[in-house]
Design brief:
Layout: H1 2-11, H2 19-58, E1 64-67, E2 72-78, E3 82-88, E4 91-96, E5 100-103
Antiparallel strand pairs: 1-2, 1-5, 2-3, 3-4
Length: 109
Amino acid sequence: MMNLISTAFAMGPPPEGGGGANVFIQFVPLILIFAIFYFLLIRPQQKRAREHKNFLDSIQKGTEVITAGGLIGRVTNVTDKVATIEIADNVRVKVLKAQIAGPGPTKGD
């Protein structure tokens, strides 16, 4: 046991000076990982969310939409939070605007 303790005392503290640059170099990989996550994951998701919000704000009567549940229909009435969608002749469903996934399929689909 005595041998282990004397070895620990013999090691002493790390040398002084020159450690500032070394600390920065240790954080470079962490900064690079954050930058990669930002440009590949966070930024595109924010762009998609902004485009979806703009789409929801631009919904008008007659717009064809698809809901998160998979219903496809034409908007017959819109308020701030609710849209009424006609999914078949004389079949209307009220849905929250937040549950509208996007524009309906195009004519070719």
